[in-house]
Amino acid sequence: MFSVYVTGTDTGIGKTLASSALLHALRDHGLRAIGMKPVASGCEYVDVQWRNADALALLAASDPRPDYADLNPYALPLPLAPELAASDAGIEVSLQGLLDAHARLATQADALVVEGVGGWAAPLSETLMQADFVHALRMPVLLVVGLRLGCLNHALLSARAIANDGAHLAGWVASHVDPDMERVADNLRMLRERLPAPCWGVLPHAVDPDPALMATCLRLPMLAQ
Protein backbone atom coordinates (compact mmCIF):
# COMPACT_ATOMS: atom_id res chain seq x y z
CA MET A 1 0.00 0.00 0.00
CA PHE A 2 1.46 3.31 -1.16
CA SER A 3 0.94 6.40 0.98
CA VAL A 4 2.15 9.94 0.20
CA TYR A 5 1.90 13.10 2.29
CA VAL A 6 0.99 16.27 0.40
CA THR A 7 2.22 19.55 1.84
CA GLY A 8 2.51 23.03 0.38
CA THR A 9 4.59 26.16 0.27
CA ASP A 10 1.73 27.97 2.01
CA THR A 11 -1.98 27.77 2.62
CA GLY A 12 -4.34 28.35 -0.30
CA ILE A 13 -1.92 27.27 -3.01
CA GLY A 14 -3.74 24.24 -4.40
CA LYS A 15 -2.96 21.29 -2.13
CA THR A 16 -6.50 19.97 -2.36
CA LEU A 17 -6.60 20.29 -6.14
CA ALA A 18 -3.21 18.57 -6.47
CA SER A 19 -4.26 15.82 -4.04
CA SER A 20 -7.55 15.25 -5.85
CA ALA A 21 -5.80 15.19 -9.23
CA LEU A 22 -3.29 12.71 -7.83
CA LEU A 23 -6.13 10.47 -6.67
CA HIS A 24 -7.62 10.51 -10.17
CA ALA A 25 -4.22 9.77 -11.71
CA LEU A 26 -3.71 6.78 -9.41
CA ARG A 27 -7.21 5.53 -10.21
CA ASP A 28 -6.45 5.90 -13.93
CA HIS A 29 -3.65 3.37 -13.33
CA GLY A 30 -6.17 0.90 -11.93
CA LEU A 31 -5.41 1.49 -8.26
CA ARG A 32 -7.89 1.81 -5.43
CA ALA A 33 -7.00 5.33 -4.27
CA ILE A 34 -8.36 7.09 -1.18
CA GLY A 35 -7.73 10.57 0.13
CA MET A 36 -7.22 11.60 3.73
CA LYS A 37 -7.41 14.99 5.42
CA PRO A 38 -6.22 14.13 8.93
CA VAL A 39 -6.90 17.55 10.41
CA ALA A 40 -9.16 20.20 8.88
CA SER A 41 -10.26 23.51 10.36
CA GLY A 42 -13.17 25.51 9.03
CA CYS A 43 -16.12 23.09 8.83
CA GLU A 44 -19.88 23.18 8.37
CA TYR A 45 -22.35 21.10 10.36
CA VAL A 46 -24.02 18.79 7.83
CA ASP A 47 -26.04 15.65 8.56
CA VAL A 48 -25.15 15.71 12.29
CA GLN A 49 -21.43 15.85 11.50
CA TRP A 50 -18.81 18.56 11.00
CA ARG A 51 -17.54 18.45 7.42
CA ASN A 52 -14.77 20.31 5.64
CA ALA A 53 -14.87 21.37 1.99
CA ASP A 54 -11.33 20.16 1.25
CA ALA A 55 -12.02 16.80 2.85
CA LEU A 56 -15.23 16.46 0.84
CA ALA A 57 -13.26 17.15 -2.36
CA LEU A 58 -10.89 14.32 -1.47
CA LEU A 59 -13.86 12.08 -0.71
CA ALA A 60 -15.34 12.84 -4.13
CA ALA A 61 -12.04 11.96 -5.82
CA SER A 62 -11.66 8.68 -3.89
CA ASP A 63 -12.64 5.23 -5.08
CA PRO A 64 -13.73 3.41 -2.99
CA ARG A 65 -15.26 6.11 -0.84
CA PRO A 66 -14.53 5.55 2.86
CA ASP A 67 -16.42 6.77 5.90
CA TYR A 68 -15.99 10.52 6.24
CA ALA A 69 -14.89 10.14 9.87
CA ASP A 70 -11.91 8.04 8.79
CA LEU A 71 -10.97 10.35 5.92
CA ASN A 72 -11.14 13.40 8.23
CA PRO A 73 -10.82 12.19 11.83
CA TYR A 74 -10.35 15.72 13.21
CA ALA A 75 -12.92 18.11 11.73
CA LEU A 76 -12.56 21.41 13.59
CA PRO A 77 -15.37 23.98 13.27
CA LEU A 78 -13.51 27.30 13.31
CA PRO A 79 -11.36 28.47 10.33
CA LEU A 80 -8.23 28.94 12.42
CA ALA A 81 -4.81 27.34 12.72
CA PRO A 82 -5.50 23.73 13.81
CA GLU A 83 -3.92 24.23 17.22
CA LEU A 84 -6.26 27.13 17.95
CA ALA A 85 -9.32 25.55 16.34
CA ALA A 86 -8.85 22.34 18.33
CA SER A 87 -8.37 24.22 21.58
CA ASP A 88 -11.53 26.27 21.02
CA ALA A 89 -13.48 23.09 20.25
CA GLY A 90 -12.14 21.26 23.30
CA ILE A 91 -10.56 18.59 21.08
CA GLU A 92 -7.13 17.03 21.47
CA VAL A 93 -5.50 16.00 18.20
CA SER A 94 -3.49 12.87 18.95
CA LEU A 95 -0.97 11.00 16.84
CA GLN A 96 -2.61 7.68 17.75
CA GLY A 97 -5.97 8.93 16.52
CA LEU A 98 -4.41 9.84 13.17
CA LEU A 99 -2.60 6.51 12.91
CA ASP A 100 -5.77 4.54 13.70
CA ALA A 101 -7.75 6.36 10.99
CA HIS A 102 -4.92 5.88 8.48
CA ALA A 103 -4.82 2.16 9.29
CA ARG A 104 -8.55 1.79 8.67
CA LEU A 105 -8.23 3.54 5.29
CA ALA A 106 -5.21 1.43 4.35
CA THR A 107 -7.28 -1.75 4.51
CA GLN A 108 -9.46 -0.40 1.70
CA ALA A 109 -6.87 1.02 -0.69
CA ASP A 110 -3.81 0.42 -2.82
CA ALA A 111 -2.79 4.07 -2.41
CA LEU A 112 -3.51 6.80 0.12
CA VAL A 113 -3.06 10.51 -0.59
CA VAL A 114 -2.79 12.35 2.72
CA GLU A 115 -3.25 16.12 2.55
CA GLY A 116 -1.63 18.17 5.28
CA VAL A 117 -2.55 21.57 6.66
CA GLY A 118 -1.10 24.88 5.46
CA GLY A 119 2.65 24.70 4.94
CA TRP A 120 5.03 22.06 6.23
CA ALA A 121 5.81 23.80 9.53
CA ALA A 122 2.17 24.40 10.53
CA PRO A 123 1.56 22.50 13.81
CA LEU A 124 -1.23 19.95 14.12
CA SER A 125 -1.48 20.57 17.86
CA GLU A 126 0.48 22.07 20.73
CA THR A 127 2.68 18.98 20.85
CA LEU A 128 2.29 17.43 17.38
CA MET A 129 3.95 18.49 14.15
CA GLN A 130 3.16 17.21 10.68
CA ALA A 131 6.64 15.71 10.56
CA ASP A 132 5.71 13.45 13.51
CA PHE A 133 2.84 11.92 11.55
CA VAL A 134 5.00 11.55 8.44
CA HIS A 135 7.78 9.86 10.41
CA ALA A 136 5.40 7.47 12.15
CA LEU A 137 4.25 6.10 8.78
CA ARG A 138 7.48 6.70 6.85
CA MET A 139 5.56 8.55 4.18
CA PRO A 140 7.32 10.29 1.28
CA VAL A 141 6.37 13.95 0.89
CA LEU A 142 4.99 15.71 -2.18
CA LEU A 143 5.41 19.50 -2.13
CA VAL A 144 2.82 21.67 -3.90
CA VAL A 145 4.45 24.90 -5.03
CA GLY A 146 2.08 27.81 -5.57
CA LEU A 147 3.22 29.66 -8.69
CA ARG A 148 3.23 33.30 -7.67
CA LEU A 149 5.77 35.95 -6.79
CA GLY A 150 8.06 34.56 -4.09
CA CYS A 151 7.51 30.91 -4.99
CA LEU A 152 11.21 30.16 -5.41
CA ASN A 153 12.03 31.28 -1.88
CA HIS A 154 9.03 29.49 -0.39
CA ALA A 155 9.76 26.28 -2.29
CA LEU A 156 13.44 26.15 -1.36
CA LEU A 157 12.75 26.94 2.29
CA SER A 158 10.05 24.26 2.40
CA ALA A 159 12.33 21.66 0.80
CA ARG A 160 15.07 22.54 3.28
CA ALA A 161 12.68 22.24 6.23
CA ILE A 162 11.39 18.86 5.02
CA ALA A 163 14.96 17.57 4.73
CA ASN A 164 16.00 19.04 8.10
CA ASP A 165 13.07 17.23 9.71
CA GLY A 166 14.37 13.95 8.30
CA ALA A 167 11.56 13.40 5.80
CA HIS A 168 11.97 12.37 2.17
CA LEU A 169 10.86 14.84 -0.51
CA ALA A 170 9.75 12.53 -3.32
CA GLY A 171 8.64 15.23 -5.73
CA TRP A 172 6.83 18.50 -6.26
CA VAL A 173 3.87 19.81 -8.23
CA ALA A 174 3.52 23.37 -9.46
CA SER A 175 0.10 24.94 -9.02
CA HIS A 176 -0.56 28.04 -11.13
CA VAL A 177 -2.50 30.06 -8.55
CA ASP A 178 -1.72 33.53 -9.94
CA PRO A 179 -2.89 33.93 -13.55
CA ASP A 180 -1.03 37.26 -13.80
CA MET A 181 2.35 35.91 -12.71
CA GLU A 182 5.14 36.99 -15.05
CA ARG A 183 7.98 34.80 -16.37
CA VAL A 184 6.28 31.55 -15.37
CA ALA A 185 8.51 29.45 -17.63
CA ASP A 186 11.65 30.98 -16.12
CA ASN A 187 10.39 30.36 -12.59
CA LEU A 188 9.60 26.75 -13.44
CA ARG A 189 13.08 26.32 -14.91
CA MET A 190 14.69 27.69 -11.74
CA LEU A 191 12.53 25.46 -9.56
CA ARG A 192 13.51 22.40 -11.59
CA GLU A 193 17.18 23.35 -11.34
CA ARG A 194 17.14 23.95 -7.59
CA LEU A 195 14.62 21.64 -5.94
CA PRO A 196 16.19 18.30 -4.94
CA ALA A 197 13.31 16.20 -6.29
CA PRO A 198 11.57 15.63 -9.63
CA CYS A 199 8.60 17.66 -10.82
CA TRP A 200 5.46 15.50 -11.02
CA GLY A 201 3.57 18.04 -13.09
CA VAL A 202 2.29 21.59 -13.55
CA LEU A 203 -1.37 22.34 -12.88
CA PRO A 204 -2.61 25.24 -15.04
CA HIS A 205 -4.75 28.04 -13.66
CA ALA A 206 -8.49 27.46 -13.93
CA VAL A 207 -11.45 29.30 -12.45
CA ASP A 208 -13.33 26.05 -11.79
CA PRO A 209 -10.70 23.30 -12.10
CA ASP A 210 -11.69 19.69 -12.76
CA PRO A 211 -9.41 17.33 -10.79
CA ALA A 212 -10.01 14.52 -13.30
CA LEU A 213 -8.74 16.71 -16.14
CA MET A 214 -5.87 18.01 -14.02
CA ALA A 215 -4.79 14.41 -13.50
CA THR A 216 -3.62 14.35 -17.13
CA CYS A 217 -1.03 17.02 -16.20
CA LEU A 218 0.67 14.69 -13.71
CA ARG A 219 3.43 12.16 -14.28
CA LEU A 220 3.93 9.67 -11.48
CA PRO A 221 7.53 8.35 -11.33
CA MET A 222 6.63 5.48 -8.99
CA LEU A 223 4.23 4.08 -11.60
CA ALA A 224 6.48 4.57 -14.62
CA GLN A 225 7.27 1.38 -16.49
What does this structure look like?
The chain is an alpha/beta fold and 225 residues long. The chain has one domain: 3-Layer(aba) Sandwich (Rossmann fold), CATH 3.40.50. It is built from nine helices and ten strands. The strands form three sheets. It has a six-stranded parallel β-sheet, with helices on both faces. It has a two-stranded parallel sheet with strand order 3-6. Helix 1 packs parallel to helix 2 and helix 7 packs parallel to helix 8. It starts with a strand and ends in an 11-residue tail after the last helix.
Shape descriptor? globular
Total number of β-strand segments? 10
Oligomer: single chain
Helicity level: 25-40%
Average of per-residue pLDDT values: 96
| Radius of gyration, CA atoms, in whole angstroms | 16 Å
Largest sheet: 6 strands, parallel
**What class do helices, strands and sheet pairing give?**
alpha/beta
In the CATH hierarchy, what is the superfamily? P-loop containing nucleotide triphosphate hydrolases
User: Widest sheet: strand order?
Assistant: 2-7-1-8-9-10
Distance between the termini: 18 Å
CATH class: Alpha Beta
Give the total of domains.
Answer: 1
Strand % is 15-25%
Number of discrete helical segments: 9
**From the coordinates shown, what is the CATH architecture?**
3-Layer(aba) Sandwich
Uncertain stretches: none
Which series of helices and strands comes N to C?
Answer: EHEEEEHHEHHEHEHEHEH
